[in-house]
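Subject: design request, 514 residues
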């Protein structure tokens, strides 16, 4: 038995239960998310993957809208497909494709949103099934055999339609019907794109422009090698054709025209869609799944998968007792399937990233720094009961400490990290503001005034004596004589006015008036 090993990267963002659609060969990861709360340490890690079975029947599921580029430089086109209701010439597929239990290597592309594996339709007219208003399966030879219908409807890819008395604009100038192959074996993708394709309709406004000219149809069909998956991406279908009631089919049918599967509500009905995607998964009773295990990045096996089915077309893989780290942990999920021919085994090695996205909610109280000094501080408080004490704290990328308070800080921004006993953490930035205003208290201490009453006859003599004294005391005691109304007042400059400030003391001498 041959084996194919396929490496694919998946991204899963953390959560307590894990929902993941594994990216099997030719598939894509479909936006799955893992949530791990701080109360989770070791958890069952689960992923959902397409459950590949024998391809004689199919299940259809809706997937996130993620098309490939609708056109590329060098893609293949056939001018016949730009004629209304016409098939391209038959061409060889880049790989054998399993479809409804058969293996096909040729196909034709229809101008009205259909692919057929019936090479005998090469270059022929492409019948418009919606003329008959019948849903699939038709059990009629009116519909092409072995067909994939992305938007099987009354499309008009021609830029102009010549009516009896006028030329009608239908598709924009930049419209394209193009196909190509991407990737390498055994995980190649065959991509068929219909880009800005108009719908057939009458010119009811006499402007010679189809009513759907400004809202054309865009969609894509993707065939996946090895897995046999079929994806249909609808970019836009918002304007319906006027003729034949605007019905359209999004589905598949087998060679015998007896079996078919369609997307819900899209089986020859009036429907609109914008950014919708669907996946058709081979889903007969015989499973092609062989086994799965989860590995660390060194390749060591951690657990084998338990399997279950909770949704049609998907397989649940659960790995018990997986213990991701506090931030990012990578694992490899190794899955083994048989190819659609059931003769070869292929292995997927899918790298997943488990990220602990849930953090410990925390707040911080701040004391501002004053006048350029390192007088600021930060105190951190964890506000969530999911964390497990004791907590440790760090700022500026420094070492963790047990105290939740950081002092001696200048004004600025400080990255803060909080970690609980199991490594669950949170990180945020705290700003310490600067305060340029001095806080102060003003008071006068021990001020006094000396007041003397002197008879007028003695005043002149006393003044002469005091003048000599003041000459000696000037600048020392700070005494100032004032004579008014026969009285002498001596006022001292000492003691002083004391100005108390934070964080320093300033002394300022003042003159105290009476």
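Subject: RE: design request

Done. Sequence follows.
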């Amino acid at each position: 038995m041959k084996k194919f090993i396929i490496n694919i990267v998946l991204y899963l963002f953390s959560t307590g239960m894990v929902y993941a659609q594994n990216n099997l060969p030719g598939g894509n990861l479909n936006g799955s998310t893992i949530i791990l709360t701080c109360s989770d340490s070791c958890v069952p890690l689960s992923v959902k993957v397409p459950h590949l079975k024998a391809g004689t029947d199919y299940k259809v599921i809706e997937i996130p809208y993620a098309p490939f580029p609708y056109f590329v430089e060098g893609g293949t086109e056939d001018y016949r497909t730009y004629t209304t209701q016409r098939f391209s010439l038959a061409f060889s597929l880049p790989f054998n494709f399993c479809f409804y239990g058969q293996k096909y290597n040729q196909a034709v592309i229809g101008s009205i949103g259909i692919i057929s594996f019936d090479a005998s339709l090469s270059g022929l007219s492409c019948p418009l099934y919606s003329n008959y208003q019948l849903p699939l399966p038709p059990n009629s030879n009116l519909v092409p055999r072995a067909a994939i219908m992305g938007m099987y409807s009354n499309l008009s890819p021609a830029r102009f339609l010549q009516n009896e008395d006028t030329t009608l604009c239908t598709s924009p100038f930049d419209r394209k019907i193009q196909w190509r192959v991407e990737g390498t074996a055994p995980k190649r993708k065959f991509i068929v794109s219909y880009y800005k394709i108009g719908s057939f309709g009458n010119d009811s406004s006499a402007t010679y422009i189809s009513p759907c000219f400004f809202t054309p149809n865009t969609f894509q069909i993707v065939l996946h090698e090895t897995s046999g998956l079929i994806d249909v991406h609808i970019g836009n279908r918002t304007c319906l054709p006027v003729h034949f009631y605007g019905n359209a089919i999004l589905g598949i049918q087998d060679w015998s025209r007896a079996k078919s599967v369609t997307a819900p509500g899209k089986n020859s009905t009036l429907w609109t869609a914008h950014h919708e995607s669907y996946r058709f998964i081979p889903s007969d009773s015989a499973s092609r799944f062989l086994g799965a295990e989860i590995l660390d990045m060194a390749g060591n096996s951690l657990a084998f998968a338990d399997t279950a089915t909770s949704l049609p077309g998907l397989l649940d893989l659960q790995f018990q007792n997986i213990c991701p780290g506090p931030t990012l942990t990578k694992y490899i999920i190794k899955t083994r399937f048989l190819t659609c021919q059931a003769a070869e085994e292929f292995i997927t090695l899918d790298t997943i990233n488990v990220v602990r996205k849930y953090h410990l909610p925390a707040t911080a109280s701040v004391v501002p720094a004053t006048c350029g000094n390192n007088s600021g501080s930060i105190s951190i408080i964890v506000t969530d009961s999911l964390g497990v004490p004791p907590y440790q704290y760090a700022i500026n990328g420094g070492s963790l400490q047990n105290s939740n308070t950081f002092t001696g800080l200048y004004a600025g921004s400080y990255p803060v990290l909080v970690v609980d006993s199991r490594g669950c953490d949170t990180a945020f930035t705290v700003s310490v503001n600067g305060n340029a205003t001095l806080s102060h208290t003003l008071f006068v201490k021990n001020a006094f005034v000396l007041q003397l009453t002197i008879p007028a006859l003695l005043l002149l003599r006393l003044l002469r004596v005091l003048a000599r004294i003041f000459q000696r005391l000037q600048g020392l005691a700070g005494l100032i004589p004032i004579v008014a109304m026969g009285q002498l007042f001596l006022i001292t400059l000492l003691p002083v006015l004391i100005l108390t400030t934070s964080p320093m003391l300033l002394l300022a001498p003042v003159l105290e008036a009476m």
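Confidence is low (pLDDT under 50) at residues 6-32, 484-489, 491-514.
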